[in-house]
Amino acid sequence: MESQYVHGYSRRESRRLRDQASTLEELLHDTVLYPEGSRVLEAGCGVGSQTVILARRSPGARFVCIDRSGDSLARAQEACRRKGLSNVEFHQADIMNLEFAEGEFDHVFICFVLEHLPDPAGALQRLSRVLRDGGTLTAIEGDHGSFYCYPETAESRHVVNCLVEVQARLGGDSLIGRRLYPLLTGAGLRDVRVEPRMVYVDSSRPHLVEGFSKNTFTAMVEGAREKAFEFALTDERQWEKGIADLYRATEEDGVFCYTFFRGRGVAD
User: Fold this and answer.
1) pLDDT exceeds cutoff 50 at 263
2) What is the 3-state secondary structure (H, E, C) of 155-175?
3) CA quadruple 110, 113, 114, 117: dihedral sign
4) Please, what's the b/e burial string for 108-141 (b: 16 or more CB within 10 A of its CB; e: otherwise)?
5) Upper half-sphere CA count for residue 189 (Cβ side, 13 Å)
6) Is omega for the bond preceding 206 within 30 degrees of 0, making it cis?
7) Cα 1 to chain center, whole Å?
8) Largest Cα–Cα separation, the chain
9) Torsion on CA atoms 13, 216, 249, 163, rounded to nearest 10
10) Domain ranges in the chain?
11) Residue 183 · residue 189 · CB < 8 Å
């Protein structure tokens, strides 16, 4: 089964991805830096939300960014053009059918992609093959099972669980963060290290209330509405109450917490 991108390809989703990337840049990219002259493959670049951060933070590296969606690639190219980034090239390609030579890249970067693939282990094995000996692969994923909020209700937990189930039925795994270590080691990488990167949000951090709690996480859950109803996972009352309760947790006394996982391994 070919997995589907659960969040869709709308302009709203593009904005959500940009909000997510900019809000979480320091949390997720603080040590993701590539030396001058290195050749880096970004696998599944989407609309370029991570690409612009990678290319700006490592201006001396050359990035080859691939995605299977031509529309997403066009948006990614435009995002880089607006930022004046010239160290990036784009190609329409499928991770499962890479045409690059073995050992062609010094580094590989993949972020929020494995969760959408029916065979993430196979994808990582293919990506490992295009790395030179001693090259690195960095993977970043979330885990919706790590989410909690205050106040939390049965309905707010229900709508998050709907997203988890929708993604599973579409061939993905939104709980993949907890699997990152065995996936990377299973791909033949050595010296694998995985670290949790927690986002904690309360009203003393208003930029995270807007950028993460509202515009990243709750917007992501809202995007699963159509499929949740199509799969008969919920009803109107449960869904509307659950979304309202997620927004309730962004008020003055509310709290959000979520954990991302960043893994890195070295190719032999």
Assistant:
1) yes
2) HHHHHHHHHHHHHHHCCCCCC
3) negative
4) bbbbbbbbbbebbeebbebbbbbbeeebbbbbbb
5) 31
6) no
7) 21
8) 56
9) 60
10) 11-266
11) no
Phi, psi of 177 (to 5 degrees): -55, -40
Residue type, 31: T
pLDDT at 12: 65
- Choose among 110, 94, 99: nearest CA to 45: 110
Is this prediction's pTM over 0.90? yes
| 128-139 pLDDT tens trace | 999 999 999 999
- Beta partners for residue 142, in sequence order: 260
> CA-based Rg of the chain, rounded to a whole angstrom?
18
Tokens 């435009």 found at: 78
- Helical (H) or strand (E) element with 202: strand 190-202
pLDDT above 70 (res 11): no
> What is the fold, at CATH topology level, of the domain defined by 11-266?
Rossmann fold (3.40.50)
Q: Which residues contact 232 (CB under 8 A, 6 or more apart)?
A: none
The per-residue pLDDT for range 152-172, each reduced to its tens digit, is 999 999 999 999 999 999 999
Residue environment code for 40-78, b if the CB has 16+ CB neighbours within 10 A, otherwise e? bbbbbbbbbbbbbbbbeebeebbbbbbbebeebbebbbe
Residues 39 and 231: their CA atoms lie apart, in Å, by 43
